[in-house]
Specification:
32% helix; 19 helices; alpha/beta; eight-stranded parallel sheet; six-stranded mixed sheet; binds zinc ion
Length: 562
């Protein structure tokens, strides 16, 4: 594992570096950015006007006059003209391959009614007569009167080929009759462990497959070939830079895909990636050694591996998130692990120096994750672990102090409370009123002094950080509904949302001494924005654009015209 500088020591070293830079022996800055309004994220020096860059790091952060003094003959001088500058955004939870693939696929996210969903599919199928499968993603439960679609509806628009469409949250698949036939899913097929084949009153499959049952069909869909994955990663990296991202956390990536990502990053180094490998249950010594070899092999300038990621439960919409109290209509959602199995596995990875990321959405799953982390810390040697609970959508308020006490990171998704029709008509009713009040409770998490790192879970939601900040601050849709925001007590300040997308996300990957704040000696990763987020009315945040993204001193994205 990496050794960590104490923040205090880093700051002192950095400012010494800055003060010696003017001496005649030191070369001048490569680039200086002056005349800006800079939010540094550094509590000791929260604001500045100018930045000087040499190589990949910041040489100085200060007033325009000071920074101009570091310019020499060949220095590029950029006048920021009063623009707001913030540290480069860090998305603490996304899936680059899925995100990149989704950019080129049939997307149903914006289809709010069943009629629009069907029309979008029909149009895509017509426009792609050569595709062997019609596949797409992003449909929402709220688009359908009963909350779920049917194979008959899909047969009507795709009668000639198999079709497979995954819900926006990735937990429910929808097949047409031909896809079910190829997969040999019939009324006789048993539900697989951890999954459900939805059936009609007569017991026939409706075409909807939940959780692990999706594999029955998805395993037959031909995987994208290597060149398509390369293109997807390239598109994802370019899109991330345009959203102002300089770092992302890849929340679980298969080893084959990792090799492709590394090769793409070598050609197109416009993003820093911190990656998690899939967790193995009760890993053997050999298994741990093999994963450690992967960790070493792929460590590069742009990619590091430090975590393993596991799933403890499902999602709220399909009532598969593991809860203490039953859902309206029954069932608590089943955890995918026993506590004992989880404790053993987490302790083994903890001993081997890994950070563990556990997907836990229901309050019971969150408690299981916290318990496993606490037990691993008690059993193993003292170290700076920073294990992470991913999503923690519903949590018992009494469990929140366990994050700070255990040094556990709360990894939440800023756009998950986006109160669209799906959220209000499917998500909230599935929780019931008591749980809805403590769902996606970002403010309560902050008040419990947990480190909260924000992400998007792209492709679940786009990794569009400015739109995500707008959601965390207003908890309304783009149209401003519901007035005042959904569960408004959990709204955050702009500054808190910025912190979660910068410094706290850097902390979540053990890198806060290098990035996430703007200070001398830190990486020159920052973003120039079209509007001053910290001064405008909250409802205008969503109209803010990224003008320039700088990664390690180089432009990774520049808006047309800037
Ligand atoms: Zn995810």
């Amino acid at each position: 594992m990496r050794s960590l500088m104490k923040p205090g020591a880093a700051t002192i070293a950095a400012f010494l570096l800055a003060s010696s830079a003017g001496a005649s022996a030191s070369p001048p800055a490569d680039r200086v950015f002056v005349g800006g309004r800079i939010w540094t994220g550094d509590p000791l020096h929260p604001t500045a006007e100018a930045l000087a860059v040499r190589g990949t790091t910041l040489l100085a952060v200060g007033s325009s006059a000071e920074v101009r003094g570091l310019a020499g003959k060949g220095t590029e001088v950029v006048d920021l003209r009063g623009r707001r500058v913030v540290p480069g955004f860090i998305d603490a939870h996304l899936h680059l391959l899925g995100g990149g693939l989704s950019l080129g696929r049939l997307r149903l996210d914006d289809a709010e009614t069943a009629a629009t969903v069907m029309e979008t599919i029909r149009a895509w199928a017509l426009a792609h007569p050569d595709a062997d499968w019609v596949r797409g993603e992003g449909w929402t439960y709220a688009a359908f009167a009963s909350g779920l679609p049917t194979r008959e509806a899909l047969d009507a628009v795709v009668p000639d080929r198999p079709a497979w469409l995954v819900s926006y949250d990735g937990h429910t698949g929808w097949a047409n009759s031909m896809a079910l036939r190829i997969a040999e899913v019939t009324r006789e097929t048993k539900d697989p462990p951890g999954g459900r084949i939805v059936r009609d009153a007569a017991g026939a499959p409706t075409g909807v497959l939940e959780e692990s049952a999706q594999r029955l069909v998805s395993r037959l869909v031909p995987p994208p070939p290597r060149f398509e994955k390369e293109r997807a990663f390239e598109r994802a990296i370019a899109q991330a830079a345009a959203w102002g991202l300089t770092s992302v956390h890849e929340a679980g990536i298969a080893e084959d895909d990792l090799a492709i990502l590394v090769s793409v990053l070598e050609q197109k180094p416009a993003l820093r990636v911190y990656a998690a490998l899939p967790i193995e249950r009760d890993p053997s010594a050999d298994g741990l050694a093999r994963q450690d070899a992967v960790r070493q092999r792929y460590a590069s300038r742009r990619l590091t591996i430090g975590a393993v990621k596991g799933y403890l439960d499902g999602v709220v919409e399909s009532k598969t998130a593991a809860m203490f109290d039953p859902y309206p209509g029954g069932g608590n959602g089943l955890p995918r692990w026993t506590q004992e199995e989880l404790d053993r596995t987490v302790a083994a990875y903890d001993r081997a120096g890994w950070q563990v990321m556990l997907h836990a959405i229901g309050d019971r799953a969150v408690d299981m994750a916290l318990t496993a982390f606490e037990r691993a810390a008690a059993a193993n040697a003292t170290r700076d672990r920073r294990h992470r609970v991913e999503h923690l959508e519903v949590v018992r308020l009494a469990d929140l102090p366990r994050f700070k006490a255990g040094g556990i990171v709360a990894s939440t998704q800023a756009t998950f409370p986006y109160p669209n029709a799906n959220h209000l008509r499917v998500y909230v009713p599935a929780l019931g009123p008591e749980r809805a009040q403590r769902a996606l409770a970002f403010k309560a998490i902050d008040d419990a002094l947990a480190v909260q790192a924000f992400g998007s879970d792209w492709p679940v939601f786009p990794a569009d950080v400015l739109r995500a900040i707008a959601c965390a601050v207003t908890r309304t849709t783009r149209a401003g509904l519901p007035a005042g925001g959904w569960e408004p007590a959990q709204r955050l300040s702009v500054e808190a949302a910025l912190r979660h997308f910068t410094r706290d996300a850097a902390f979540a990957e053990h890198r806060e001494a290098e990035k996430g704040t703007l200070a001398p000696g830190r990486l020159a990763d920052f973003v120039v924005l079209s509007q001053d987020l910290l001064a405008i009315a909250p409802e205008r945040i969503q109209d803010t654009q990224v003008l320039l993204t700088v990664l390690g001193g180089q432009d990774s994205y520049r808006a047309p015209g800037f």
